[in-house]
Design goal:
By secondary structure, the chain is of the alpha/beta class. Helices cover 46% and strands 21% of the residues. It contains 15 helices and 14 strands.
Length: 423
């Protein structure tokens, strides 16, 4: 697939194929992470469309009911048991069919069905549900919601219009497009079925400390919020949706056979696992000692996350995995092993991975391993994106490096050999 981004966050322009490994290189604050967050937001929009759609229908009917309640109370006593039951159910229910049933009960009430004004408003509220199911309008609503939660303060008011497009290839028409014309106007179109047939999920690894968040949620009363949308939104809105999404995927039922080609336990010298009894992530050393997240090395968490995603069958050719600066918690030796694991996932699992980095160790490891495995200049398997600041205008442009050209290869090698300048 092919992604185009214009004027989101720091990113003035980005265009690239996003199959195989897309390695985004550059200094801090050049918009490397923004591209991954855009991708995550697109596929969360498409894959959670029904959840968002149901939520908005519920909110619509609840608002209509609250608006009509003063008129209803003029016709029906506040002490009416039936009205109390309906009121309680509408306000507490998160089931759209239950709320629709309550509206139909109100329409049948002897005193309400004689009042043409109330009856028409109840019917209008129910009829509006048909309009609220329109894919284009709700793709726009969903993307606005997901994007704003994942990329806070990324849109500057003086840089309109902004746009995101996703297509099959560089010349094909957009399968997904999102445009913001100004502060109050946006539009979205999506060929949902066609896109989700190709890519049906996205995963964002922002930090290995998501393991600690998961264990804190277990200890707290918020554990069920991971699976319940309404509770999650109410109680733990401050925790990144990307983190909550990842936690849920790490806790799926493992299939150990999927790890046969990826000996992660050998690298970390132990077994990272999710303990069903305690509902905690743990690490078991070869001597049998078990560690929980608060005394588990962060590097082990980094590899443990990949291990759980692999054995839970969450990394495959229909998923896009976004990894943001994995070097932050890894020793140089483990950075090279992490890079090798990423290349193996692209080759063995046909994984689609977007990874941002400014680590010379990862950059050189990717080069060496890609050359060894004959995918160095295979654009179907790997491509290299250079993020560079335009300091005068506070933008960054993300450009694909053509490593057949010496000057662009020099840019790549300079990033990979940055330590030489300190000697």
């Amino acid at each position: 697939m092919y992604l185009k981004v214009s004027k989101f966050g720091k990113v003035k322009k980005f265009e690239s194929k996003i199959e195989g490994l897309t390695l985004i290189l550059g200094e801090n604050n050049t918009g490397k992470s923004t591209v991954g967050k855009v991708i995550f937001s697109i596929f969360k929009t498409l894959n959670e469309f029904e959840e968002y759609n149901q939520k908005e229908k519920i909110n619509h009917l609840k608002k209509c009911y609250n608006f009509l309640l003063p008129d209803i109370l003029k016709k029906v006593s506040r002490e009416s048991k039936k009205l109390k039951d309906i009121k309680c159910k509408i306000r507490s229910s998160q089931n759209i069919n239950e709320i629709i049933d309550c509206f139909n009960q109100l329409k049948k009430h002897p005193k309400i069905k004689k009042d043409e004004n109330i009856l028409n408003k109840l019917n209008s509220a129910l009829n509006m549900l048909q309009m609220l199911s329109h894919p284009a309008s709700y793709a726009n609503y969903c993307f606005n919601d997901v994007f704003n939660k994942n990329i806070l303060n990324s849109v500057e008011k003086d840089c309109y219009p902004l746009s995101v497009e996703l297509s099959l290839n560089e010349k094909a028409p957009a399968l997904f497009s999102y445009n913001i014309q100004n502060e109050h106007q946006s539009s979205c179109s999506a060929m949902m079925g066609l896109i989700t047939d190709l890519i049906d999920d996205s995963i964002f690894i922002e930090s290995p400390f998501v393991i600690d968040i998961s264990n804190v949620l277990k200890i707290s009363d918020y554990q069920k919020a991971i699976d319940d949308y309404s509770i999650r939104e109410k109680h733990i809105g401050e925790i990144s949706p990307m983190a909550l999404d990842l936690i849920k995927k790490l806790k799926s039922h493992p299939k150990e056979e999927l790890l046969e080609k990826f000996d992660i336990n050998k690298i970390i010298k132990g077994n990272f696992f999710f303990d069903d009894k305690s509902s905690l992530f743990k690490f078991k050393l070869h001597d049998g000692k078990e560690l929980t997240s608060h005394n588990m090395p962060s590097g082990i968490k980094s590899f443990g996350i990949l291990k759980m995603l692999i054995q839970n069958d969450k990394i495959n050719k229909k998923t896009i995995l976004v990894i943001d600066e994995p070097e932050n918690c890894l020793h140089p030796d483990w950075q090279t092993k992490y890079a090798e694991l990423i290349i193996d996932l692209v080759i063995e699992k046909e994984a689609n991975i977007i990874m941002s980095t400014h680590s010379p160790y990862i950059i050189q490891a990717i080069k060496s391993i890609a050359l060894k495995k004959h995918i160095w200049n295979n654009d179907d398997k790997i491509r290299y994106i250079w993020a560079e600041n335009d300091k005068e205008k506070n933008w960054s442009t993300l450009k694909k490096l053509d490593l057949t050209k010496q000057e662009e290869l020099d840019v790549f090698d300079r990033l990979g050999n940055i330590m030489i300048g300190l000697i």
